[in-house]
């Protein structure tokens, strides 16, 4: 699932723009609700001690996502 | 301000909300907003009530209502659960949406977080689609200033077309103005607003449906909004709409016809299912973006950058876990060290009172049995609960609440999520476990923040492995009696804090183990996806939290002591003094339980105390003491050392002590918790499982431990 250009590959401190959401069902809706749609800018802020989940800055809020879920968010690095 | 008496104990078992107006002229205002934006703080500040607040998303899980008056006008405020959207993807979003749509509030105050206003506007825009009677309250202005975010609220207000009020509810800033704005709203409610423009095919489809729905909704809901939701294919809402209109929507010929045509039109444009949802959500998000453009400016301050660095350290590879353990141990140490002196003083005072009472009874020539029932039975049990249990509870609770207010709990969930994932459970379970430290019933209600029903049940069934406030003092008392020996003072209290931390870690280990087992057996499934918001740290309102929660706790424990401990004392006295044949009832009961108790490393009296302690865990130790003293040994028990003497005289060894602690950690939930589980799961079966799983775990662990230890 992990494409070369998914959110999972973003390193702490890096930013990127979302190009597409490949998540489905309730996760897709939840991500859209918090403002994560194509075109949204995301910054990788911190990793949890075990390396997963990872917290991202999305529209001013810090949101943690599991690797399975961030792998379905496609990005384009600026 | 953290857990309150309203969110723990029996109050956790809430009932469905019915809005109670004191007068017909009173205005009903719904407080909506994203999770963790301070809705409950606004609610408490306005109503003077004490609804649970804390710095983590999802505290308010049910509607609460309160009254206030402003400039002679009466208001009924309804605090609804936080939600990101009104499309109802989770239980609490559904509660929120249903109240705004079908609860017929006169106005909605949407509370927003100034530090991420753009995201919050999504909910504002969705609310505006339902009703025009909206006031936007931009809360946390103080935090935004701290973070270097400035908001041009006048511009936002002009673009939204409704009043926008800046506020900092924790310091009371902006609340007067909020009430002014609410009072100033025109009373003709439900005026329709057409703020969002959707892509052309969507607008055309809506236009097809609107006329047919206009008749059915009859002004109770905007037809445009109803049309959008019907196109969305939102099943639950379709049912609610049907019951509101008093007719099955799809059975209405004109609606069905229009819907078919609209769907065909959308199909041609490629807007079906996910595509349509995307189009609708994107339109909302883009609109929020447009409204904030040029109105919100962010320039991270030095403070903000420092906060981020601290947060990164707190969740880093090297510090993350040690820091969590250190915090836990520190909280426990403060509790143990701080409770010592008040415990002793209370015991001395209360036992002096007992002597005086006894003397008074003798003085008035009261019958001996009456003195026995009231003084040796009721009063003494009460005295034990108050002196041994109250001080640690009154100290632990505010400390825990401070951590909650600070915003540390979501970080715990963040740190531990990977292990929950390995157990096929949800990281938010860590949050519900944290609540369990305060009160297991509150922990169970907190499980509503977990969206997946399977993971929610796992969290409910395992919540009892976290010792609640009512069980801590039991553990602390046994620890200090049997494992500290001569070590008193500072080193003694540190040692017992470390031992207690160990016991809690064992409980957490059991949680993981049982979660994993449940995921493999009764509740098979794979971990589901979720998002976890990490809110900014907030300075806790230290003074208020401490005063409030000590006060709350003290009253709560005293109330419970009167309601539960006093009758339990009565029962124990009766059991010990009513004889059947040659034996007292107590001897018969404990004798009956004795073989099993001994197999578990305890004895019949201890097991009986756990059974009688079902209504409240804090009465287990007092019942034990009562039972032992009733069997003849009478000592002055004002000090723990004397208490240890009593226990040892009744055959306690270190094995008994450890087994009792293990069983205290792992046995059936108290009756309030069971009732809450029944209510929350809606199932007798899962309540029974929640009762049996920790009990079985306790039986297995105690049985293994006791029998292995005896071999040594």
Report on this model:
The complex is a heterodimer of chains A (78) and B (712). Helices cover 17% and strands 36% of the residues of chain A. In chain A, strand 3 and strand 4 form a beta hairpin. Chain A is built from 2 helices and 5 strands. Chain A has a single domain (7-76), classed as Ferrous iron transport protein A (FeoA) (SH3 type barrels). The model of chain A has no long low-confidence stretch (mean pLDDT 89). Chain A is α+β, with helices and mostly antiparallel strands and 78 residues long. In chain B, helix 18 packs across helix 28 (684-711). The longest helix of chain B has 44 residues, at 320-363. In chain B, the strands form 3 sheets. A 6-stranded mixed sheet of chain B has the order 2-3-1-4-5-7, sandwiched between helices. In chain B, strands 6-8 form a two-stranded antiparallel sheet. Helices cover 62% and strands 7% of the residues of chain B. Chain B contains 28 helices and 11 strands. In chain B, strand 2 and strand 3 (73-79) form a beta hairpin. Chain B has helices spanning 39-47, 91-102, 117-130, 141-147, 153-160, 175-183, 200-217, 223-232, 235-245, 253-268, 274-292, 302-314, 320-363, 368-406, 409-422, 429-438, 440-446, 453-462, 472-482, 489-520, 542-577, 585-599, 604-612, 620-630, 640-649, 654-665, 671-681, 684-711, and strands at 27-33, 64-70, 73-79, 107-113, 134-139, 149-151, 164-166, 296-298, 531-533, 579-580, 583-584. Chain B folds into 3 domains: 9-183, P-loop containing nucleotide triphosphate hydrolases (Rossmann fold); 200-270, no CATH class; 320-711, no CATH class. Chain B starts with 26 loop residues before the first strand and ends with a helix. Chain B has 712 residues and is α/β, with parallel strands linked by helices. Strand 4 of chain A pairs antiparallel with strand 9 of chain B, so a sheet runs across the interface. Chain B: The chain crosses the membrane at residues 318-336, 382-403, 470-488, 494-514, 554-576, 605-625, 646-668, 688-709. Chain B: Its main location: membrane.
